[in-house]
Structure formats: C-alpha cells, structure tokens
Write a structure and sequence with these properties.
By secondary structure, the chain is mostly beta strands. Helices cover about 5% and strands about 40% of the residues. Strands 1, 3, 6, 7, 8, 9, 12, 13 and 14 form a nine-stranded mixed beta sheet that branches. Strands 2-4-5-11-10 form a five-stranded antiparallel beta sheet, covered by helices on one side.
C-alpha cells in the first residue's frame, strides 16, 4: 500500500445549465464557467509512459453534476458498444467518487462511443451495477480525426450529466454545499499506447484506480 499523499481540491461552481435549450449551449456554458481540472498524473511512468493532453470541466446545478472531458491526439480504440462492458479497454474517461462519511464509492467509466459502466463498490472486487440509475445518465461525445506525420490521431470530447441519485444522494438532498472525495481518470488498457492518467496522483506500484485513499476533494458551491 502506498503512502497517502496530498490531495488536489476542485471548487465546483453552481450554474443553471439545465435551463439552456440545446446540448451545445450547455457544453458552451460548462466549457466557459466550469471548474477545469487537468488529468495529467502519469503514475506508472516506467511501464506506461504515455501522456496526452486531457482535461475535465465540472459544474452542478444542485440536482445534476455536469462533466466535460477533452482529449487531444489519441490513437483511439472503440470496441465496446454495450453498457456495462469493459469500456476501460477502449479510449475511456472515468469519474470515481465517494460521499463524505461513506466507505464505499461509485465509478462512472465512459468510452469514446458514450458507452457507460457504473457500479457501487465496497472494493475493487466487490460491487454491484447501477442498473436502475444508468438510464438517467446522459452522454454526448464528439470525435475529430486528423493526421500527424501520416499517422491518424483523434481529438474527442465527452459530456456527461450525472443526476444526484446516481451519485448516492436522495431526492431531498441538494448537491449545493456538498463535499465529496473523487478522482478523474483517462485510460485505454488495450489501445495502441496503453495509458493510465489521473487528476489526483496515485502512489502504488501497479495501475489501480479503485483507491479512495488517493481521491482528491470536490467542493460544490
């Protein structure tokens, strides 16, 4: 077990995103006003040195958490097309979170196609699917292909709306004023260049994202 290290803190603003008419307006507001976090920690550099520019922007409106990931210059993989599949093998972005005073945690893993895996976990090995919550999680992605020195690369984005019930809050609770432990990830286990990037650093000898002791802190306005 690695030592517990200083955790990053992200102050997530409250914005009335839900009132906007189109998905593009919502993304524009989130891009302009959301809290920006770099997913830039290459924790296992000796075995998996690949890094690429990845950011996530976050905001909430009391009822829903909004996330917008931007990935630049990836040799993509998109093999999984069914929810709850092994999306982490593809070009994938992830969000893990834990409510205050909870021992368990929840994960939201989304590949480049918007295919989603979400589970409630007691540990990496022990957990259950969020089957009832999954239909309420909205996903919208874009992909732009281009070439660098005769090699195809892709820039892609993923926009997520995660309602409070999927985060473990009940209908009488607001996200406003909440604090949660969390980490943001970018991975691709079976891509041409396997990589395991995180927002908050992880001090373990091998890749593992199921480590709440290395989560950062989200403070929701």
């Amino acid at each position: 077990m690695g030592k517990i290290i200083d955790m990053r803190t992200l102050h997530v603003p409250k914005q009335n995103i839900a009132c906007l008419e189109t998905i593009f307006d919502k993304i524009k507001m989130l891009h302009e006003t959301g809290a920006k976090a770099p997913i830039d920690q290459v924790n296992w550099r000796a075995d998996f040195p690949k890094s690429l520019p990845v950011t996530v922007r976050a905001a909430h409106d009391g009822e829903t958490l909004y996330l917008y990931y931007t990935v630049i210059g990836e040799a993509i993989r998109a093999a999984n097309t069914e929810d709850f599949g092994p999306v982490w093998e593809d070009s994938c972005v992830e969000f893990f979170m834990q409510r205050e005073n909870e021992t368990g945690y929840r994960n939201f893993e989304c590949n480049i196609l918007g295919v989603l895996l979400s589970r409630r976990h007691e540990s990496r090995e022990k957990g259950e699917r969020q089957t009832h919550e999954l239909p309420s999680i909205f996903r919208f992605g874009t992909i732009c292909h281009r070439y660098e020195k005769d090699r195809q690369m892709s820039d892609w984005t993923m926009y997520l709306e995660i309602p409070k019930n999927a985060l473990g809050f009940d209908m009488y609770e607001s996200l406003s004023g909440q604090r949660m432990r969390a980490n943001f990830y970018k991975c691709g286990d079976k891509t041409v260049e396997p990589h395991f990037l995180s927002w908050n650093p992880i001090d373990l000898p091998k890749p593992n994202f199921h480590v709440p002791q290395f989560f950062g802190l989200l403070e929701l306005e």
